[in-house]
Known about the structure:
Pfam families: Glyoxalase_6
Number of helices: 4
Protein name: VOC family protein
InterPro entries: Glyas_Bleomycin-R_OHBP_Dase, Glyoxalase_6, VOC_core
Strand order of the largest sheet: 3-6-5-4
Domain VOC: 1-123
Strand content: 25-35%
Structural class: alpha+beta
Oligomer: single chain
Amino acid sequence: xxxxxxxxxxxxxxxxxxxxxxxxxxxxxxxxxxxxxxxxxxxxxxxxxxxxxxxxxxxxxxxxxxxxxxxxxxxxxxxxxxxxxxxxxxxxxxxxxxxxxxxxxxxxxxxxxxxxxxxxxxxxxxxxxxxxxxxxxxxx
Length: 140
């Protein structure tokens, strides 16, 4: 899956996601009329589909109020606190500091370039431990 984001300040967005967040550059192209695009490697992708109640609950847990736009990016990191600090120093705005969630991850929320909102999350339990916790499972 590839997510395509239009960024008014292309250079700031590239500097943030490639240089500050550390997403490796896979390819970059330019074209007529100053057209530019960079493709950054973001690891494996999943598509998380949440109903409005779930979206509200995540906002309440991570931030304490409703703030998320319709789309929000989430990146798993090894150290939420350190990465949050690094990204704030690189120009992100902290919406909520690292917070332990009911699903045992350490999440922070940031407003970042290109008009995006970002959750950084660090899993505090391994997959097997999470799969046996209350509220986890699949619908299928």
